[in-house]
Structure formats: C-alpha cells, structure tokens
Amino acid sequence: MKILRYHMEDWLNDSFQVDYNLSASGCQDYTLAELLELCQADLADLGGLFLGDNDTRGSLALRQEICRSYDSLDLDRLMVANGSSEALFCFFNELLEPGDEVVIHFPAFQCLYQIPLSIGCQVKFLDLLDCPGWRLDLDRLAELVTPRTKLIIINNPHNPLGWTLTRDELAQIGRIAAANQAHLLFDEHYRYLPLTPGADLIPSGYDVCRPLHPDTHASGSMIKCLGIVGIRIGWLMTEPGLLARCRDYKDYLTHTIPSLTDHLARVALASRETIVRRKKQDILPNLAALNAFMADHAEVFQYQPPSGGVVCFPRMRQVADSRRFCEIMLRDHQVSLLPGFAFETPPHLRLNFGIDHARFTEALGRMDQCLAQAAAGRIRLEG
Ligand SMILES: Cc1ncc(COP(=O)(O)O)c(C=O)c1O
Fold first, then answer.
1. Is the distance from CB of 79 to CB of 127 less than 8 angstroms?
2. Do 183 and 210 have their domain in common?
3. In this predicted structure, what is the pLDDT of residue 362?
C-alpha cells in the first residue's frame, strides 16, 4: 500500500520552537510533574510501575476507565492503541476493500480519507465549506449515501472547523447509515472538550447510534483535550469480531501499549473533569478574545466560532492562499498558524486557542500588528 505524505507535518515540525504555537491541534501540553500534581498522584508511585508486557488491547484498568465516559461501551468492544491514528489504520485496513464506496466530509483530518484512498476505495466527499455555516448538512449527507456505500466517516467535534453535532443530528446520521446498511464510523478525538457553558462531555455518536444501527464504530482519544499529546494513546470501539481482527492487525504494528503511557492515560482520564476545568480557565477567555478579534477583522476573515475542541478554521477573504500570511507570522512575529494547504483548502488557516491566556492574547496582538502593516500597504499578504 502506497500512502501520501502528511500535508501538515513539515509545517508542524518547524513550529515546535516558535514562541507562540497556534498551529498544533491540542491544548497546551503539561509536564509530567504538572499532570501528576493536577491528578493528585505521586511521582514516586511511578517507581513501582511494572515494565513488562501488557494486554494488547490495553490494561484492564485503562479500558475500565475509558468505558466510564460512554453509556453503552463494554470491555469486549474496546481496544486501546498507540494513538487513534493506529486504531483508525487497523480499522480501515480490516473493514475496507479496493473499490468500496466511502462517504466523508471535506475538509477532514488527512488520515480519515487518505487511508481509504490508499486502500483503493472510491471516496465521495461532502463539501462542508459549501454548506450553511460550514456545518454538516444532513440532507446532503442523505443524498450522497447510497446502498453501495460501505462506510460513512464523521469527525465530531470537527477538526479543523470546530463544530459539534447534537444528539438529534447524531441520531439522524445513524438512521441514514441504517437505511443504507452502511457502516458508520465516528472519530471523536475532541469529545472531552465541549465549549458550551456547563457541558461536560460531547455526546458520543457511538452511544447515540449503536442502539439504532449495530454497524456503528468509533475512535476516541483524550490526549489533545487533556494536554498530554506525547503519551500517544487512542482507542477503537467496534463489535467483538472486527475488534479481534483489528487486534491481529495491531499485533503486526506496535503490539503492546507501553505500561508507562497506559498508566499515565488511566491517571489522567480518572481526573479528566479537574484537568478540563483547569484548561477551560484559559480556553474560554481565549475563545472570547478570538471572537472579538474576528469581529474586529471581519473584512479579513470569514469565521465560524467553534463549539468543541481547540481549533477553528477561518477563511482569509482577500487572498487565494493563506500561506504567505502564515509565513510572515512565523518569520517576523514568532506566531505559528497552520496554512490551509495542510487541509487542501488554501484560503483558510487553522488557528489553535488552547494555549495559556496571556500568551494567546499576545499572539492575537501580533496578528493584529501584521494585519495593520498589510492594511497600510507595508507588506503584501497575497502571492
Ligand atoms: C480528528 C483527528 N483524528 C485523529 C487524529 C490522530 O490522533 P492521534 O494523535 O491520537 O493519533 C487527529 C490528530 O490530530 C485528529 O485531529
């Protein structure tokens, strides 16, 4: 199987050392000591951790902890992987055959459509940027899905657009899949970070749709929502037969979940409410500042405020490609934004608001300066 390069990786790798990194997709990450302190866990306990082999589905303790975030998930339907990318890779390769029809929205996180394309599937895209509010239009989804469709893929909350789906919308998607006997996969990477006041968890498509349609599957993660991207944990939820085959597939890749990351994932998930509450002390003021910034610069950016996760995807109105603006921001202002080419939509850019509030405000100030220079004709943003 031949795979295309990830469009975004070179840019992201060049952004690690920058002062204000708004190109990443997760919340600002913790140190180990910070994480353990927030979780009221003792660093010394790590000394007693057994560094032996582990269940290839992830430890029982971690799987039990993951199940607590779902209404209808049991241990037989859950496999932990080294990142949800690994879970998705196993799932696509086990379920899909060359020629299978797959329906997905666009833009989307690259692996969600690139792996099906590499397998030789016929991928049909629903263009979100052509839908009202850039949201998933369920009538258009219903038109696109046919009895030939093998798999529908939905990423909720959406990276990069930041929308979330309601329970009703999820149920409608479940009914579309059931009516066409299509498998349905939800990628729920940002589920732990709803931005609506008072919300704790974004409803899971797996919970809502499986009672309506048994061929519902999902991938999940918490590493970006909890600021622990370096531990590389994700999971797959599917029916036991397919799970066993995905587990076989994983045995050829990484096989085991390292005991250290398995342990840290369990500790962090057990304290997720505390961690998310702490994260929101920065993220919600950041979002308010971002909304104000976008209102002030409405002639430059077309913007839809996000309702889940920590990214949004404004479009630059006056340029065909945001790359030059992003390059100037990176080189002259030490602020990294992800140009839209990374999602094959050049006029847009992805902006992360998951860093601490003081630094986020400073980064917005630097964008403001750059736009003022462009408005005064001192720099050019196109070309
Ligand atoms: C929507 C979505 N799905 C899957 C992934 C892959 O995640 P992981 O880092 O857990 O492999 C990402 C990573 O950015 C993502 O944004």
1. no
2. yes
3. 98
pLDDT band at 301 (very low <50, low <70, confident <90, very high): very high
Domain contains 314: yes
Q: What is the mean pLDDT of residues 8-19?
A: 80
- Closest CA relative to residue 216, chosen from 105, 57, 64, 73: 73
Confidence of residue 86 (pLDDT cuts 50, 70, 90): very high
User: Cis peptide leading into 160, omega within 30 of 0?
Assistant: yes
Average pLDDT of the segment spanning 282-305 = 98
The DSSP string of 143-208 is HH--TTEEEEEEESS-TTT-----HHHHHHHHHHHHHTT-EEEEEETTTT-B-STT--SPPPHHHH
Compute CA 314 distance to the chain's CA centroid, rounded to the nearest angstrom: 17
User: What residue numbers bound the domain in which 206 lies?
Assistant: 44-272
* Atom number in ligand 1 closest to CA 221: 10
Ligand 1 atom closest to the Cα of residue 155 is 1
Q: Are residues 305 and 267 in the same domain?
A: no
- Helix locations, the chain, DSSP H: 9-13, 32-38, 60-67, 84-95, 110-119, 138-144, 167-179, 205-209, 240-252, 259-270, 272-296, 323-333, 357-375
Based on the fold, state whether residues 230 and 307 are members of the same structural domain: no
Indicate if the pLDDT at residue 61 is higher than 80. yes
* β pairing state of 234-237 and 216-221: antiparallel
Question: Is 268 in contact with 275 (CB distance < 8 Å)?
Answer: yes
Cross-strand partners of 20:
335
Kindly list the protein residues whose Cβ atom lies closer than 6 A to any atom of ligand 1.
25, 83-85, 109, 155, 159, 187, 189, 221, 223, 234
pLDDT in the model for residue 4:
76
Return the DSSP state at 321: -
Residue with CA nearest ligand 1 atom 9: 83
Is 120 a domain residue?
yes
Quick one: tokens of 6?
């990830």
pLDDT tens figures, 340-374: 999 999 999 999 999 999 999 999 999 999 999 99
Of 50, 79, 78, 4, give the one whose Cα is nearest residue 251. 79
Out of 272, 290, 321, pick the residue that ends a domain: 272
Alpha-carbon gap, residue 243 to 56, rounded angstroms: 12
